[in-house]
């Protein structure tokens, strides 16, 4: 993944957590603890606008419980919106959590966001595994 004609710069990161079923993984990702880690604050995953305590805001556009959520997201307050999708996929050994982000400004932001989402997914691992 890199630059596309339609979505601009984009990035994606995946992590598989062994022994965790997709339903349980979704429940923990959608919890206040889960959204605080990956979204930046406790947010109800329902379509519509959301605002975080640090001033970032966006819009949850699609929610398919147990599958994925698609929303706009800002890296910092006032930054241009990017499109973020978080997906839960069954894996042979457990569950894969995939993050895909589009409409990044340039290669530098892409590299920053790759590092950010790798850290986020690593931080989510113990939360996801807590119900295994």
UniProtKB/TrEMBL annotation:
It comes from the Bacteria. Residues 38-128 form the Activator of Hsp90 ATPase homologue 1/2-like C-terminal domain. Gene3D superfamilies: 3.30.530.20. Pfam families: AHSA1. Belongs to the AHA1 family. This is Activator of Hsp90 ATPase 1 family protein.
């Amino acid at each position: 993944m890199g630059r596309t004609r339609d979505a601009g710069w984009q990035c994606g990161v995946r992590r598989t957590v062994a022994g965790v079923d997709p339903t349980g993984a979704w429940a923990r990702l959608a919890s206040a603890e889960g959204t605080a880690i990956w979204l930046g604050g406790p947010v109800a995953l329902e379509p519509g606008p959301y605002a975080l305590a640090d001033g970032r805001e966006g819009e949850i556009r699609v929610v398919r419980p147990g599958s994925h959520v698609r929303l706009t997201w800002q890296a910092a307050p006032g930054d241009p919106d990017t499109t973020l999708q978080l997906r839960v996929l069954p894996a042979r050994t457990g569950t894969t959590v995939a993050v895909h982000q589009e409409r990044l400004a340039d290669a530098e932001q892409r590299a920053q966001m790759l590092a950010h989402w790798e850290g986020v997914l690593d931080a989510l691992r113990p939360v996801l595994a807590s119900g295994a």
